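So, can you check?
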Amino acid sequence: MKLNRENIPNLAYDELICHIRSSWEQDKKEEYKGLGQALKDELASREPTVNYTCPKCSHNEYKENQIRSSGGGFSALFDIQTEKYRVITCQRCNYSEFFESNVSISQQVLDWLVGS
């Protein structure tokens, strides 16, 4: 299926990120001509803090934190934190939502060296 403005909102998050990265590649500039900004706008609209409203109490103020943890197996054995989550917490009722993020390889190596 050819990518166009109409089907950008239907892309899964990972597909959206993949298309944004591809749009930066020199040999694919023509293929993504005119779609780069639409892809970025779609990504921005999916940001959990844009027009935030708590799903539990409808309050619109939040605080943001992050949690990192080991994923299991060798990462747990060596205390390498391979999982990262953004936590958005309602300031009124403390309802929290977790959003998965990525931990870079360099940060994982640093965790292993420092032993955090």
In short: The radius of gyration is 18 Å.
